[in-house]
Amino acid sequence: MGDILGQEAVIRERRLGSLLTFAGTSDDLVGLSERNPEGCCRDNSFNQCGDCSAQRAMLPLSQIRDAALVNHAPLGCCADFPLFNAGNRRGLKLRGMEPEGIRAVSSNITERDIVMGGAARLAAAVGEAFRRFRPRAIFVSTSCASGIIGDDVEEACGDCERRLGVPVVPVYCEGFKSMIWTSGFDAAYHGIVRKLVRPPARRRGNEINIFNFSNYQAFTPLLAGMGVVPRYYVHQSSVEELATMSESAASTHICETLGTYVAAALERHFGVPELRSPPPFGLLWTDQWLREIGRVTGREEEAERTIGAERARIAPELDRLRGELAGKTVYAFGGAAFCHNMLAISADLGLRIVGMMGFHHDMTFDNPHEEIVSIRNIHQRTGGIANVAVCNKQPYQMVKILEELRPDMVMSRHGSLPVQAVKLGIPTFFAGDANLIGGYDGLLNAGRRLVRALRQRNFTRNIAAHARFPYTDWWRGQEGAFHFRRPGQAAG
Ligand code: SF4
Fold first, then answer.
1. For residues 15-37, average pLDDT
2. H-only helix segments in 349-456
3. Domain-located, residue 130
4. What CATH number corresponds to the domain at position 233?
5. Which of 80, 137, 311, 383 shows a CA-CA span of 20 to 30 A to 36?
6. What's the pLDDT tens digit per position in 433-446?
7. Where are the beta strands (DSSP E) in 235-381?
8. How many domains does the chain have?
9. What distance in angstroms lies between residue 51's CA and the mean position of ligand 1's atoms?
10. Does 344 fall in a domain?
């Protein structure tokens, strides 16, 4: 995983051999990951849209309660701030706190700074963030512009830290650095673990770290029955809560894509084990997750009791939902491992899985634990998936794949994407808040929403009748969706 005490996180295509395009079966992808863990991250020769790892780094960092974020960038790189603002307000409200906006500013690099250097502007922005927000720590996220001109952000942050007396944490997440935008999550965690997390002063034997977004605290009641207390990270955490994540009994996350870098860092440097199980989505994976929490916290009997009671409680409604969904086909798209979570839910609801599209694929993870290899877990759970695509959110490819497979419904983790399926007349489930489909109640919640989506078939048919795509007959006539893959790209 590289050196967590080093200046910056190693990007995913180097560290995890991550892929950006692939077409084949889940068996092919499992085999490829085992044979070729170093991967070969080539892109398509044509991209309709893109994303940026700086945004993925700033998303959590902007939502630390008593910290501030300085984006050392031109103003345009702050385009996602309204989105982070909305997430922060929602997250605080869900946690019973007063909704507030994020505490973030831009250093607003201009053309002049590109020529003359931006260090003075960065120092001024950090000073302004300190004056406005009186934060307990300041994160400084880098950008393409600051990377290209070669500003010494490390030194500038060190100077500010000495002057202001609070940690000033550089986070190296230049957008051009990685083709895998989730490298930005790792950059954010790297800064937190490197500069803020303290060695444990004590062990909190019944508390576990759960890395997630600004989402509903869905796992609290489930774990309460076992006497386990979740500590939700990192959105809406305080700087002190970040500093003590090293004291928890274990770490887990809602998806390997989001959380394995920080979990591995905590395991390696502070002895906090990463749970060796898939995340808690669907019946079987939630059982496994609770058993693993029981093992690491010495609560095996409590885990078995919770599993038995929860399964009995949800059984009547689960049977009804399975009856309504039986035999229906489903296709899922979402960020790599979270796609596997949605398919674990689909399998437990009795749906027939026709395929999936992950936005990238990590050939390996930072901890070498077999139990967290997400593609292998979903391959085994489903007995194999015939159509597995890796595609960096390109609508032109999504539309082509869905037109060919024509599933009864689509599950999507991210907003803005469901519209592609709806325009084809396919009822679509938008997961949104990831935690709301986690655990046993989340399985029922997902089932109810899928049934509702199916009942709205006329609505989606009407939309499809009036929708137009911009794609030419030439593109529609191409065989498969991967015409623009560069030669040499790993494929099944
Ligand atoms: S960091 Fe680079 S890729 Fe990201 S928004 Fe700014 S200019 Fe665009």
1. 92
2. 374-382, 395-405, 418-422, 439-455
3. yes
4. 3.40.50.1980
5. 383
6. 999 999 999 999 99
7. 248-253, 329-334, 352-358
8. 2
9. 9
10. no
